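Batch manifest line 556
LIGAND: adenosine-5'-triphosphate
JOB: complex structure
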Amino acid sequence: MIEWRRWAVPLGWLALLLAATLGMGQLDGLFRWIEADSRQVIYARADFLTLLGRHLLVVSVAAVLAILVGVGAAIAATRAWGRDFLPLVSQLASIGQTFPPVAVLALAVPVLGFGTLPIIVALFLYGLLPIVRNTLAGLEGIDPGVMEAARGMGMSGGQILHQVELPLAAPVILAGIRTSVTINIATAAIGATVGASNLGDPIISGIVNGNTAYVVQGALMIGLLAISVDSLFSRLPLTGSR
Amino acid sequence: MIDLIHVTKRFGAATAVDDISLSVARGELCVLVGTSGCGKSTTLRMINRLIEHSEGEIHIEGQQIRAFRQETLRRRMGYAIQSTGLFPHWTVARNIGLVPRLLKWPAAKIQARVEELMALLGLAMEEFAGKYPHQLSGGQAQRVGVARALAADPDILLMDEPFGALDPITRESLQEELRELQARLHKTIVFVTHDMDEALRLADHLVVMHQGRIVQQGRPLELLREPADGFVESLLGGEDRGLKEAALLPVSQRMLPLGPRRLARERIGQQASLREALSVMLWRHSERLTVVDDDDMPVGELSLRRLVGARSDD
Ligand SMILES: Nc1ncnc2c1ncn2[C@@H]1O[C@H](COP(=O)(O)OP(=O)(O)OP(=O)(O)O)[C@@H](O)[C@H]1O
Ligand SMILES: [Mg+2]
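JOB STATUS: finished
ARTIFACT:
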């Protein structure tokens, strides 16, 4: 019973998202009021379900890559043999985020061509920093007494990592992943400018054609998606306060 | 059992431990004392290779510690530290079972061992087994730390201020328990402390360190009676040394057999220390005490003159 209540809020948001995805057409009247001059007020070049799916796909692929690389690099940089790389790793991650995703897109398109690939690269780089930073903070933040005891008891490096460091750092690492994914759900919209069709399409198309209703629809979908995902993260057992 | 032979440890240019030699016999409780930063913890941590020594040799049962894999060596030695280092995400029972699990004991044996240790350290199974470290008091956490160190029944225990930061009463009861454990289980223990009374009470073998060197080592009474220099003398209590020595000697050593005189009204157990006897005399304004055995039967008497008397006639 209690388990169910825990998930009530994220499920509520997900239901809204689903309703908006499938029922956008029903809001014709509302959008006609916003955008009285246009012949068409509901974005129809692709249906919202497809756009949502592509959006999620791009964000997920970038997130998985960023988690693998980010958590991996932070773990490596906190091992005895990798300590020398610690400053380098945190600097590289910072640079990844200071570099605007739009610039990454501009640079990536000539190399990777139009489509989904450049936006995945841009999101990957942009999402790396929160993950690296939080993983480092989580691992470095473990009570030195706990680490000393773990070593003193005769645990091997791998045992310490899996049984002590990762479980203790998990809440902080997950918080980093949550930030990274939530930011990237919004950022992914710019992928529409390089032909990666996703929930950014209605926004870009609305701006180009001067159709505010399209912009609102895209923004609404992205907002609902971001809130749903963020709310799901907040209910994961490890991120809540203990 | 443990031999340090001309061992030196340098951190960069600084020498933390400077050419020390130390032998701890099997079943002996060796206590390291000294001012802060003198190298006690470093010495202890070199024994389980949390710190690698720079020079000299360290042997366990005649074998160089570098001949063992680090993990194998450490699993053979219990290690308890002041901050306890209990894993906050594990229950008390799981924390205690750590080393047996690393050694791949069967689950039933681990369970039995955890129960045995919790009983030994006065932690009620039903109450504490499922608790997390943050739900324990400082004293309970330190007991769990000691239980975890004992879990795989190691011959050697390394303890770095394991009872630090405890109130005197809890501390004394834990010291008492350690003494009993030691008598029963014959562990070889190296123990670091700041508390001189604790050191004198526990030690079979007392080692005084100063600036990375051993200035004197031996039985506590030897050090009290013949300190090598002013540093040892002041560390062991300066003018208070008389009382510290009295705390180590039992009443039975100085009492006289019952004489024809009437029994003194105030009583003292024969196992009590001379220090306690002196305190009773001061408190009761009495120069004579009747010494009684465990069943409260008079077995002798102790006079103030006897108590402060020359050592030669013990
Ligand atoms: N990892 C390290 N790197 C550099 N110097 C160290 C390191 N560990 C200890 N030291 C130095 O070695 C000296 C001895 O330290 P140690 O921890 O052994 O002292 P201690 O006798 O245990 O002191 P305390 O009673 O305060 O615990 C100190 O000067 C300390 O600063
Ligand atoms: Mg110390």
